[in-house]
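Section 5: illustrative case.
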């Protein structure tokens, strides 16, 4: 829940769209592929050396605009973008101000541009790290042909966001699954692009392990994290959901709680459920349209023709009955 200053600024409805978080997770809580970790370390060095370069070396006086440390975290869902944003805020000793633009836009339809500016003002007052979740929605390419009011407002939002980035002396993180949708003007304002790739086998095995409490989680002797990592190419978020499903299944089995444990079949069933749910979410009408056309047997065609004829005769009979009723009504009126 947003603290009192944000509640007063944005109202009760804005609490879902704007959340101030006290960061608790650190970089020890996330497992990343080597390439992603190197890119993130490079981005972090810009944060730690920012004061030296722009203040003590005086470059801030020569470059008074564009001081914001804007990072683009791009990659599939569940690859650690939000955790790493929280870890950056934790390392800086600041709060994390999470902005969900989709809900922000729905709450303040028609007033989004000025509220984007208000978000940056709130971040200055709190000294918070800004995280724009699903940032491609707010930083999308501007339209050159403005035929509707929503297009005009969308362009204004992007312009206001760019202006605020020029004046903001802090850390801004854009997290997105669709970085290609960004307006080109953001390219020179973003200091570093970090690609969050899907974890490999070694990373997945480690992610499976860190999801369990080192002393409290009861694991059976048949649990094999390596085999799970090799069998399922999934994200860290998928593994987290699978572990929770497995724990729920194990806890729900009959017996004494002290004797219950998470077995390999619980984990295997949990990750299969997660993968199946993801496939369902990826279905679309276009995939259905591209499915093979069913072939109708000749006997079925004959039955369909008979049905068509029966429907036609019924319609003709109904039409004749209606016509006779109209004639009878006219005769009654004339008599």
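Designed sequence:
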């Amino acid at each position: 829940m947003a603290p009192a200053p944000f509640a007063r600024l944005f109202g009760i409805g804005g609490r879902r769209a704007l959340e101030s978080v006290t960061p608790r997770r650190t970089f020890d809580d996330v497992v990343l592929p080597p390439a992603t970790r190197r890119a993130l370390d490079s981005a972090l060095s810009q944060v730690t050396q920012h004061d030296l370069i722009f203040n003590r070396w005086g470059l801030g006086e020569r470059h008074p605009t564009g001081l914001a440390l804007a990072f683009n975290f791009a990659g599939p869902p569940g690859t650690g973008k939000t955790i790493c944003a929280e870890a950056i805020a934790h390392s800086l000793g600041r709060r994390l101000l999470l902005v969900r633009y989709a809900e922000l836009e729905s709450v303040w339809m028609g007033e989004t541009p000025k509220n984007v500016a208000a978000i940056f003002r709130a971040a200055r007052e709190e000294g918070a790290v800004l995280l724009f979740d699903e940032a491609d929605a707010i930083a999308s390419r501007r339209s050159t042909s403005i035929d509707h009011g929503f297009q005009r407002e969308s362009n204004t939002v992007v312009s206001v966001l760019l202006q605020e980035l020029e004046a903001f002396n802090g850390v801004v993180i854009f997290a997105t699954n669709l970085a290609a949708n960004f307006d080109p003007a953001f390219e020179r304002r973003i200091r570093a692009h970090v690609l969050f790739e899907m974890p490999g086998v070694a990373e997945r095995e480690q992610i499976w392990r860190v999801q369990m409490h080192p002393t409290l989680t009861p694991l059976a002797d048949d649990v094999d994290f390596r085999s799970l990592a090799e069998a399922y190419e999934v994200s860290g978020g998928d593994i987290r959901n699978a572990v929770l499903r497995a724990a729920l299944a194990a806890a729900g089995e009959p017996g004494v709680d002290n004797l219950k444990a998470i077995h390999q079949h619980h984990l295997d069933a949990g990750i299969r459920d997660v993968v199946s749910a993801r496939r369902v979410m990826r279905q679309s009408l276009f995939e259905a349209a591209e499915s093979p056309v069913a072939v109708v047997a000749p006997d079925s065609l004959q039955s369909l023709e008979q049905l068509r004829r029966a429907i036609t005769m019924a319609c003709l009979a109904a039409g004749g009955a209606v016509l006779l009723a109209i004639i009878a009504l006219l005769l009654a009126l004339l008599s």
